[in-house]
Amino acid sequence: MGNASGKKESDNLYSSDELRMLEAAYKNASGGALEKLTSDRLVETWSQTIERSLAESTAQFLFMPTKPGQQCINIQLRKFAEPYYAMERGTIDQKLQLLLSSLQKSGSSDIFNIKQLEQYIYSVIKSYIHLESTSKGSCIKPWQDVGFNTTERSTVTFVKGLVRNLGKETEHNMTNEALERWLHITPQFLQIWREVFVQLYSRHGGSKRTIIKEMEIPILPELCDAPQNSHYRPIMELPHVLYINAQLPREHRHKWRFLFSSKINGESFSTMLGKIMDKGPTLFFIEDEDQYIFGGYAPESWSLKPSFGGDDTSLLYTLSPAMRCFSATNFNNHYQYLNLNQQTMPNGLGMGGQFDFWGLWIDCMFGDGQSVESCTTYRDYVQLSKRKQFKIRNLEVWAAGDLPVKDEDEDGGDGQKRSVLDSNLEDRAMLEIAGKKMHSDGLREPGMDD
């Protein structure tokens, strides 16, 4: 009878499909009993699907007494469904209350330690990786198949990267107000958090994921053009991919396309240019000899020219030993630069800063790079590498989003003819590096130039 009243109250909150799923999940957690769902039973059932610490903290929220001195032994369907409701269609305030109750042992306290928040985020991320890894049709498996792992170190670094938005408040205890501000400015955590609870309920409710509203912005991008070399070992791990993908413009988060690896394609600047030019927005990932991992996001297709390109969606970032992301200040427009065979100008690829003082620089004599102490192009910038002048140990380039539309025949994407001079980009780059001037550029057929 008690659960029947809870069901009536829930009827107006959920669709019929959702209600069937929630009822099935409730029965699954309670062992088939309609009014006998206990905290211990819930934790044991949910720990099969998510991290035990996350199951315990959620049970703490669900079974928290409404009055001091009381004890909550059983919960009804309506209460059981509250985390799902908060995640799927709840307000920030409802999400905040769920998080606070999960973090605090006492509902009367409005102060908690940053370590408590980090431990909770850690359990959410670990649960997300596990859920995706065991889900049919998940886009995580192609990443794992080519060597993208999830280690303790990268997960902890990801957690600390997410809480870095709190600023100096991470040094002390936190208030409810600080936590609410953090939720507002950390949509990536809200996305992952939602996905964990929606998958948890739908999986235990025996429901297909299709009844749940799909997210408009992917958390993890689809892996395209995966490296086929059996010796490939990625620079990054899955938490790195998750972190960086959330920093990109929304229209480029759905897909990453593999372009270049120095371990597969060789330590060749010309080979790299042949792989990355005219491929749309690109992501660079560099591991230096000090085992720092860092890079940059270039929003425009690369092309050789004596001036800067790009726009203010450009980014620089570090991944190890810490995850940080630096967005544009709009102080200048020095976002991306690529030039070769110049007597009075730098020859190589750069992002941010100015000539000879780069936020990120890859010299045309592949292997050498630079990241200076200060770069006004990017906000809150810190030097990416351990040393200002660094040696490249490994370098990868990925394209973000879809390949720019171009006809595969001689017609360009705008209906104009393309010259054979515009093909064979790798050979062309090699000639430029060797100092061979492309005199044939002046011999294009009439009408081929812009």
Automatic annotation (TrEMBL):
Residues 414-424 have a biased composition (Basic and acidic residues). Coiled coil: none annotated. Pfam families: TLD. The keyword Membrane applies. GO terms for cellular component: lysosome; membrane; nucleus. InterPro entries: Claudin_CS (IPR017974), TLDc_dom (IPR006571). Residues 404-424 are annotated as: Disordered. One of its GO terms (biological process) is response to oxidative stress. Keywords: Cytoplasm, Lysosome, Membrane, Transmembrane, Transmembrane helix. Signal peptide: none annotated. It is found in: Cytoplasm; Lysosome; Membrane. Residues 234-401 form the TLDc domain. It is a multi-pass membrane protein. This is MTOR-associated protein MEAK7. It comes from Drosophila willistoni (Fruit fly).
